[in-house]
TrEMBL record, chain A:
Subcellular location: Cell membrane
Full protein name: Spermidine/putrescine transport system permease protein
Signal peptide extent: none
Keyword Transmembrane helix: yes
Species of origin: Paracoccus tibetensis
GO biological process: transmembrane transport
UniProtKB/TrEMBL annotation, chain B:
Protein name: Spermidine/putrescine transport system substrate-binding protein
Chief localization: periplasm
Organism of derivation: Paracoccus tibetensis
SUPFAM superfamilies: Periplasmic binding protein-like II
GO biological process: polyamine transport
InterPro entries on file: SBP, Sperm_putr-bd
Record key words, sorted: Periplasm, Signal, Transport
Entry superkingdom: Bacteria
Amino acid sequence: MAEITATGDRRRLIAMLSPAYLWLTVAVFLPLSAMLFFSVLTALPQDGPDWSLTLQNYRLFLTDPVYATLLWKSLQLGLTVTVICILIGYPCALVLARTIRGRARETLFLLVILPFWSNSLVRIFSWAIVLRGNGVLELGLNAVLPFDVSLNLMFTTHAVVIGLVHSYLPYVILTSYLALQAIDDDIIDAARSIGAGTLTILWRLLLPLSLPGLLAGAVLVFVPVVGSFMEPRILGGRMGTYYGTVIEDQFVAVYNWPLGAALSFILLAVVLLILTLTSPILRKARL
Amino acid sequence: MTTARSSLSILALALATGAQADEIRVLNWQGYGTDTSFASEAFQEATGHSVIHEYFNSEQEMLTKLRTNPGAYDVVMINAVFMPQAVREGLVTAIDTAEVPNYTGIPEGFAADPKLMIDGEVYGVPWTWGLTSFAINTSAIPEAPTSIQALWDPAHAGRVSIRDDALEAMQLAALATGQDINEIADLGAAEAKLAELLPQLRTFWSSENDWNQFMAAGELDIATYWSGSAARSAALGLPVEFVVPEEGAIGWLDSLAVPASSSHQEAALAFIDWMIDPAFYVQWDAEGAPASANADAAAALPEDAFNRRVLGDPEVAARVRFQGELSDETRETYLRIWQGLKAAQ
């Protein structure tokens, strides 16, 4: 009797899960396997009838120092952007979740998500208008300040960081906000009743309790920034060559898909390695 | 005058091709001459053949399309540099130039180019040519420099731009170091020259529109550019002057060819003939076109037209270094050098 229910349950389980797995197969597994296949080819089958399997594309990463240099540059960029996003985003989330109540919170929350509704390319081009020499920012500052400033931010690494922080900041705010909001007010009241100051509450209670959300936000920022190519290309000028732009070049300009695919998989491996190495810290934060 | 001539040549076209109506498919860059509406309308009116366009984004993509879609195209635009490869792979067919009356107007230098005429057979009809050199912002630099070294001039530091393209960058460096652009013997010298140029750059430009905006905003003094684009930018009213320095300029030649698998070869040749027709070219040039490879078409331009005044100058023509065929290995070497230089920034 119990067994029949078990098989019935299992059947129902399979029926309910199959759309999700089908979707994962079609949208994630198939494209990734195709890319993995491309990455070990000498040439795309439609281009070279005499294609064969090779590891040369992966070997190139080890023999040509350019790729490792660029990957290191991209990882540093990812780290910088993530740290700045946390420094700006976490306090925002804290204020939003703990001090502002009612309608004002909804409005502010909407303002945080609002940039997400516009196309990211449009946002980056708006930054180009703001940052360029004689642009909106410079004109504005010169109108307010008594002395002349020449920022010249456009086409520098700073411009790339500014654009990326603006694009990815909402992730940190959203995840931290959800974690902070879930903290029971009674815990804070209890701490205060036995004499804990605001800083102690923040350091000993709020930060540890919301750390999982904060770290989830950090991962959501770090991973795409390491592979970013559109922002560096538009805002970085001659400083804007990163690992992501080189991968894009292989697909768009040079038409060397096998090398582009191999470089993408190396990036995937490196990111997974970093996440694995940091996972003990992530797990500890969750406990 | 122009209308009279154009109706005449369309009449000639109609006589040459007969009344049978075909649909021909043309493979080209987008917005590059063949797909102007006046061209296909006049062609259809004269011959009854309709024209459908398909586009590619890189020469490699064009070759792949020819390989993988046999029979899909009747006319293809191929840069002369890529023609020997297309011929070797049997992608294009030999052309009977008697079917292309306007072919007689093409000067020997273009017609007998060894990249287009292989073993005595014509595979590509020279269509357009142009230069890659640089242009200056005349409001910043009143007097046009005579040397390519102007790009390296510290006076323009931070106000220079080139395109993010390995081949173009290496050939530019070859010119500046006095080397043959098709056979750069001292790659180290070219690389060192580019390493000196990079700190001069404001940014890389990527499209004509991009270039125009930088110039209009006064952000650039001097930047590499294409001859046809410079004519268009000047026509827009930008303070731009195209310079062909004494070290020389990079020349490119585009040709029209018929894929071996085409089933409408007669209509395809009629279309190619129309594309090198002076009547078509004069109208196209008014909108901003590269230089025509047909001498008759160039002679039909008004005397002050950029393509006649600058590119028709024999002194300029003597300085042009035409691009030769490039092996995949050389292409990869250039790319590696260029990526290395950019990564070091």
